[in-house]
């Protein structure tokens, strides 16, 4: 097995062995969706949601949670802790460059986000009949661009934060903003129109996910904003990231 493959394997084991990360990162979004669906009223069509059920309307917001909780909280905290503890500095003296550790972290956390989102979609469909995304290609594009933007922001936090505590503080602020604009704390139809529209452009772009879920091709501008955010945040993070 290559050095990178071994690192990915080790990081995956560490991820799974951390009960808080595993439960909150992988299972919490699905638990939230199933818990809401257990309320009979939320499984009835509602006029203020265009005849949709609340459980169907809210599913993309749970996807926002699935992506955000890992990309904006777990990833930057772990990378900042590795730097603070000298793990990255010590790896620079070995044949295994610390860049491989960063790649391993990205692979594991991206895989966890994909699995968490897949669990939300599968559980909602199997338990409550939440429809699968009707515009499959649009949903795939929106999801990939959205998750890339979120992880680029997570890497930027890891690059900026001098300590794990600072990373946790910065990432918590970003996470709360993403959840607010993504309609997790308060459904988007209950938000002021200006805030709801702003949420279209806040990674991972909940409106694009919702549009594709209901069968409409996502708008180009929000997708372009996700791509630009991913490129800009990723480039800055790569430029300023310090190994020690």
From TrEMBL:
<protein>
    <recommendedName>
        <fullName>Transport permease protein</fullName>
    </recommendedName>
</protein>
<feature type="domain" description="ABC transmembrane type-2">
    <location>
        <begin position="20"/>
        <end position="244"/>
    </location>
</feature>
<keyword id="KW-1133">Transmembrane helix</keyword>
<comment type="similarity">
    <text>Belongs to the ABC-2 integral membrane protein family.</text>
</comment>
<feature type="transmembrane region" description="Helical">
    <location>
        <begin position="219"/>
        <end position="241"/>
    </location>
</feature>
<feature type="transmembrane region" description="Helical">
    <location>
        <begin position="167"/>
        <end position="186"/>
    </location>
</feature>
<feature type="transmembrane region" description="Helical">
    <location>
        <begin position="62"/>
        <end position="82"/>
    </location>
</feature>
<feature type="transmembrane region" description="Helical">
    <location>
        <begin position="21"/>
        <end position="42"/>
    </location>
</feature>
<keyword id="KW-0813">Transport</keyword>
<dbReference type="InterPro" id="IPR013525">
    <property type="entry name" value="ABC2_TM"/>
</dbReference>
<dbReference type="InterPro" id="IPR047817">
    <property type="entry name" value="ABC2_TM_bact-type"/>
</dbReference>
<keyword id="KW-0812">Transmembrane</keyword>
<feature type="transmembrane region" description="Helical">
    <location>
        <begin position="102"/>
        <end position="124"/>
    </location>
</feature>
<keyword id="KW-1003">Cell membrane</keyword>
<feature type="transmembrane region" description="Helical">
    <location>
        <begin position="136"/>
        <end position="160"/>
    </location>
</feature>
<keyword id="KW-0472">Membrane</keyword>
<dbReference type="InterPro" id="IPR052902">
    <property type="entry name" value="ABC-2_transporter"/>
</dbReference>
<dbReference type="Pfam" id="PF01061">
    <property type="entry name" value="ABC2_membrane"/>
</dbReference>
